[in-house]
Write a structure and sequence with these properties.
Elements: E1 5-10, E2 14-15, H1 17-23, H2 28-40, E3 44-48, H3 51-54, E4 76-80, E5 83-88, E6 91-96, H4 106-121, E7 130-132, E8 137-139, H5 141-155, E9 161-167, E10 172-173, H6 175-181, E11 184-187, E12 190-193, E13 197-203, H7 208-226, H8 251-264, H9 268-282, H10 284-287, E14 293-298, H11 301-312, H12 340-343, E15 348-352, E16 358-362, E17 371-377, E18 380-388, H13 407-419, H14 421-426, E19 431-440, E20 446-451, H15 454-457, E21 464-470, H16 471-479
Parallel strand pairs: 1-6, 18-19, 19-21
Antiparallel strand pairs: 2-4, 3-4, 5-6, 5-14, 7-8, 9-13, 10-13, 11-12, 15-16, 17-18, 20-21
Length: 491
């Protein structure tokens, strides 16, 4: 096994080729392969090396610079567009989110972020065995290892049980066998059995597949330990076996046995586990001296941030109006099952037929706010429109404005209130608040400022306040299933 080099990098930070070679101790001839692999799987992007790019905290499509990797030098900058863990052979890349500017507790930050990503993706119920597309794919050992270990902690080791018949045991009495084969004494026309046959179910500790499972789990745990990843994934080491795969026969024989076992198992958990063990062992030949390229994380952490804020601030967008708690006597305008998202008007396209008559077509797409919160604040019903924005904003007197949401984000946020104008009037809601929610490494909520456009605020629409939220606190709420009162934002 090669020595493992495990290092942190920050999402969206600009790195030169020399930086990457220094951080990951890359030989000159391997730097090309390293960068090419990361670019091929969408983890790394190249931009031009100029002062504007060095000051940027976000990356947009027009920044991306397409260039031949073989001719690249420090005239280009490289940007990690990923949050999570990436392995390239024996290099472990730990990509932390872009808002983490202090490096004092990167391990703590990453441990929590990994838990958030895991919870965010838990509904998928899918093991991503391969990275990339059909033409450019590699076995994703990291995803497989994590599945096997987490499955073990949830459900234990694979087991095949065996039914044993005992004389006068403590298990279930087998009456058919007892009556047909046992000796009885008749007293007052009632039979009394001196011996009872009982059934006991025991696990076979020497089962082939149980021992294979224990061997693979121990190997996977050691791989994570050698990669400095056990702590980040918050996993306890597993030591169940001293065996190696060769002890069970050659690879083809082990795969044959797994396939045969799979054909007779109908338990869903066992089927998934056997298939995952098969995939791991089938690829074990290429894993002896190399991790290949594996990924656990996301290219779209903005979607994770949106989901986190949506749950923490009790998003009512898809909640039926009848369940929100609005005054019953004002339900005349909408059916109780109508959702808040359904209230927003959809675009209507009108066409002209050959005879000159008009026909209408309504499309499904419309404005979709991130979060709508309806709450009672000091006895007054407050309608709050929140938009989770994954930006590193810099808005201070001594600095120029950087990293802010675009004009499209601002105008849409105004339009969300306009889209609910009739709804607000019908329910006599006059208290409306509008706010962008951005992550920060700070330990408390930061009142950052306000963004306004006179052309829209003149329509009696609320200007958009800006709050930077302490990401670690918000993640803790998300991971523990708690909600935060919108009043904490002090809008």
């Amino acid at each position: 096994m090669m020595d493992v080099i495990s290092e942190f990098v920050r999402e969206q930070k600009r790195y030169t080729k020399s930086d990457l070679r220094r951080i990951f101790k890359l030989p000159a001839d391997y730097a090309y392969v390293f960068i090419k692999e990361l670019k091929a799987f969408g983890v790394l992007k190249a931009v031009k090396n100029d002062s504007a790019q060095r000051d940027m905290s976000d990356l947009v499509d027009e920044d991306i610079h397409v260039v031949d990797v073989e001719t690249e030098n420090d005239d280009n900058l490289y940007v990690f567009v990923y949050v999570g863990i990436v392995t390239v052979n024996n290099r472990i890349i730990k990509c932390y989110p872009k808002y983490v500017l202090s490096e004092t507790d990167l391990l703590g930050e990453m441990k929590q972020v990994i838990k958030v990503i895991s919870r965010y993706g838990s509904k998928e119920q899918i093991i991503n065995l391969y990275n990339g597309d059909v033409e450019n794919s590699q076995f994703n050992i990291l995803a497989v290892i994590l599945f096997l270990i987490r499955d073990f902690y949830e459900s234990g080791v694979y087991n095949n049980s065996e039914d044993i018949i005992e004389d006068n045991g403590e298990g279930e009495i087998i009456w058919d066998k007892t009556i047909n084969e046992g000796f009885s004494i008749i007293n007052n026309n009632r039979p009394y059995y001196m011996d009872l046959y009982t059934r006991k179910t025991v696990d076979d500790d020497f089962d082939f597949f149980k021992r294979i499972h224990e061997c693979v789990l121990t190997k996977c745990s050691k791989l994570l330990e050698e990669s400095d990843l056990l702590d980040i994934f918050d996993i306890a080491a597993i030591e169940l076996s001293e065996a190696v795969l060769d002890d069970f026969g050659d690879i083809d024989y082990i795969l044959y046995r797994l396939q045969a076992e799979l054909s007779i198992q109908f338990n869903t958990r066992k089927q998934i586990l056997l298939k995952t063990l098969y995939a791991y062992i089938a690829n074990s030949r290429i894993l002896e001296d190399s991790y290949g390229l594996s990924m656990y994380g996301t290219n779209s952490f903005n979607l994770v941030w949106e989901k986190v804020c949506s749950e923490v601030f009790s998003n009512k967008l898809n909640t039926p109006i009848g369940q929100i708690g609005l005054p019953d006597h004002l339900h005349n305008a909408y059916e109780p099952h109508t959702r808040l998202i359904d209230v927003i008007e959809k675009p209507k396209w009108s066409g002209i037929r050959e005879d000159g008559s008009i026909f209408d077509k309504e499309v499904k797409d419309t404005l979709i706010p991130d979060i709508i919160n309806i709450s009672q604040q000091e006895g007054i019903c407050q309608f709050t429109i929140l938009d989770a924005k994954y930006y590193n904003i810099q808005l201070a007197e001594e600095k120029q404005l950087r990293g802010q949401p675009g004009v499209g984000d601002v105008t849409k946020q105004y339009l969300y209130q306009l889209a609910y104008k009739d709804f607000l009037s019908n329910y006599q809601i006059t208290e409306v608040k509008n706010c962008f929610l951005l992550p920060t490494q700070s330990s408390e909520i930061v009142k950052t400022g306000v963004v306004s456009m006179n052309i829209l605020s003149s329509l009696e629409l609320e200007n958009i306040q800006i709050r930077q939220l302490p990401a670690r606190v918000i993640y803790d709420y998300y991971l523990t299933g708690r909600t935060m009162d919108v009043s904490d934002l002090q809008l």
